[in-house]
UniProtKB/TrEMBL annotation:
It comes from Actinacidiphila paucisporea. Residues 127-163 form the Adenylate kinase active site lid domain. GO terms for biological process: AMP salvage. PANTHER family: NUCLEOTIDE KINASE. Keywords: ATP-binding, Cytoplasm, Kinase, Nucleotide biosynthesis, Nucleotide-binding, Transferase. Consists of three domains, a large central CORE domain and two small peripheral domains, NMPbind and LID, which undergo movements during catalysis. The LID domain closes over the site of phosphoryl transfer upon ATP binding. Assembling and dissambling the active center during each catalytic cycle provides an effective means to prevent ATP hydrolysis. Its EC number is 2.7.4.3. This is Adenylate kinase. InterPro entries: Adenyl_kin_sub, Adenylat/UMP-CMP_kin, Adenylat_kinase_CS, Adenylate_kinase_lid-dom, ADK_active_lid_dom_sf, P-loop_NTPase. Belongs to the adenylate kinase family. One of its GO terms (molecular function) is AMP kinase activity.
């Protein structure tokens, strides 16, 4: 299957993408991974992206699109893929459509993970990360450490990252509503969108997603 995954920050896209890609036996292609790979490998696109990032500027759409198209040209994506974080706006969505049309293929579906805005703020603003290892993540409500402010894994101090502060989270949501949410309407015009609730246990959300995608496959 060829799928685009969309949803606001805090919807659990990364988590669901990993499970879905494994269940569907297709590569999970995330924008973050594309940037890291191109920069670490020193590709021309990576050098361009790094120059913009080092200057504190947004990476232009053309650079991101180039990275995505290069990745989609890889042999493991020939039988399908799951795109996470791309396309980020309508310009990128149109570019993806043009790429797919040129290769004689189409998207099978656009999976929209729906989460109420207050829940997004609660999820992200409540995160606490270990200063010793950022992979150790807790939550003031959903995953409390045994001792307040102390990492269960290594005893390190837990803190709130600056990007997780409520005002920063709401700003990220504003950017999502302004730039990315319009692609949902764009894809609805192509009858590609399936919307599911991203509330509840991870396994429940994954089952909803798989059921929704199975319905798309059978249409």
């Amino acid at each position: 299957m060829r799928i685009v995954l969309v949803g606001p920050p805090g919807a659990g896209k990364g988590t669901q993408a990993a499970y879905l890609a494994k269940n569907l036996s297709i590569p999970h292609i995330s924008t973050g991974d594309l940037f890291r790979a191109n920069i670490s490998q020193g590709t021309e696109l990576g050098k361009k992206a790094k120059a913009y990032m080092d200057a504190g500027d947004l990476v232009p759409d053309e650079v991101t699109i180039g990275m995505a198209e290069d990745r989609l040209d890889a042999p493991d994506a020939a039988g399908g893929f799951l795109l996470d974080g791309f396309p980020r706006n309508e310009f990128q969505a149109r570019a993806l459509d043009a790429y797919l049309a040129a290769h004689g293929i189409k998207l099978d579906g656009v999976l929209d993970l729906e989460v109420p805005e207050d829940e997004v703020v609660k999820r992200i603003a409540g995160r606490r990360v270990c200063r010793n290892d950022s992979a150790h993540v807790f939550h003031v409500e959903y995953k409390q450490p045994k001792a307040p402010g102390v990492c269960d894994e290594c005893g390190g101090e837990l803190y709130q990252r600056s990007d997780d502060a409520e005002d920063k989270v709401r700003n990220r949501l504003d950017v999502y509503h302004r730039e990315t949410e319009p692609i949902i309407d764009y894809y609805k015009q192509q009858n590609l969108v399936v919307t599911i609730s991203a509330l509840g246990p991870v396994a429940d959300v994954t089952k909803r997603a798989m059921d929704a995608l199975q319905d798309r496959r059978e249409d």
